[in-house]
């Protein structure tokens, strides 16, 4: 085993606490695998060991991240998700295929999905915006986490006002999906897009409110004034 991975696992075991263990599962509908370590502590462990590996090549770092994802442990996935955004300047267009494979192979809950996609895939898309076409194909997948990833990967760029038409295109594809993890994903995306484009997002919601699941709709209008929320939530 790689010595850095061994040290990370040793520190995670040492920092597990009973209270965190007991409360961890309640955040998930799926059965999750975890040590029971507070997120802040995991972040500190990740940053500490990043300083030991940051001199390595991209392929070596990606390999270490894959080992962490393969374990299935939530905390190990979080360590990888802390490391990966540091690599954005080294990303190449072909790396999106690797991220897609990781999502299909190793992602099995919303936290692993979001921590990988928000900053790593989001940073990738800001560097290679033309790759959004591949992201749109994720939205058509049968894999629930790849579908959620299609939405949540645009959260950070959308928050800044970018990719608006792509936000709507992905939401169109996911609009009637019955999976609440997918509904919450694209609803969250619309909510973040509304920070800079409130009118456009409201118009989109009003146009689609008869078919949009209530879960997605509630998320989408969460940041809007009370009267606009009320208008959006009406069923004609």
How would you characterize the overall build of this protein?
With 236 residues, this protein is an all-alpha fold. The protein folds into 2 domains: 1-90, no CATH class; 99-236, Leucine-rich Repeat Variant. The protein has 15 helices and no strands. The chain has helices at residues 3-15, 18-24, 39-53, 58-70, 74-83, 95-106, 110-127, 132-138, 144-152, 155-159, 164-174, 180-193, 198-208, 214-220, 226-233. Helix 5 packs parallel to helix 7 and helix 9 (144-152) runs parallel beside helix 12. The longest helix is centred in the middle third of the chain and has 18 residues, at 110-127. The radius of gyration is 19 Å and the shape is globular.
Assigned CATH architecture of the largest domain: Alpha Horseshoe
- What number is the mean pLDDT? 96
From the spread of the alpha carbons, the general shape counts as globular
Supply the helix-strand structural class.
mainly alpha
Give the termini distance in whole angstroms.
Answer: 61 Å
Number of strands: 0
How many independent structural domains?
2
Secondary structure: elements and pairs:
Elements: H1 3-15, H2 18-24, H3 39-53, H4 58-70, H5 74-83, H6 95-106, H7 110-127, H8 132-138, H9 144-152, H10 155-159, H11 164-174, H12 180-193, H13 198-208, H14 214-220, H15 226-233
Sum this structure up briefly.
The chain is mainly α and 236 residues long.
Name some characteristics of this structure.
single chain, 236 residues, mainly alpha, Leucine-rich Repeat Variant, globular
């Amino acid at each position: 085993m790689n010595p850095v991975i061994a040290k990370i696992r040793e520190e995670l075991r040492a920092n597990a606490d009973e209270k965190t263990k007991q409360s961890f599962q309640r955040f998930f509908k799926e059965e999750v695998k975890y040590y029971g370590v507070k997120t802040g502590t995991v972040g500190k462990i990740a940053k500490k060991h990043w300083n030991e590996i940051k001199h390595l090549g991209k392929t070596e770092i990606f390999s270490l991240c894959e080992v962490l994802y393969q374990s299935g442990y939530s905390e190990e996935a979080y360590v990888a998700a802390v490391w990966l955004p540091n690599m954005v300047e080294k990303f190449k267009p072909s790396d999106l295929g690797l991220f897609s494979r990781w999502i299909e192979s190793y992602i099995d809950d919303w936290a692993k999905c979001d921590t990988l996609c928000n900053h790593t895939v989001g940073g990738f898309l800001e560097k290679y915006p033309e790759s959004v076409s591949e992201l749109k194909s994720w939205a058509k997948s049968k894999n629930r986490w790849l579908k959620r990833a299609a939405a949540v990967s645009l959260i950070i760029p959308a928050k800044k006002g970018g990719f608006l038409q792509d936000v709507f295109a992905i939401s169109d594809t996911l609009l009637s999906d019955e999976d609440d993890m997918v509904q919450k994903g694209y609803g969250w995306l619309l909510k973040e897009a509304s920070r800079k484009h409130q009118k456009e997002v409201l118009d989109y919601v009003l146009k689609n409110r008869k078919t949009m699941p209530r879960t997605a709709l509630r998320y989408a209008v969460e940041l809007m004034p009370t009267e606009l929320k009320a208008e959006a939530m009406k069923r004609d």
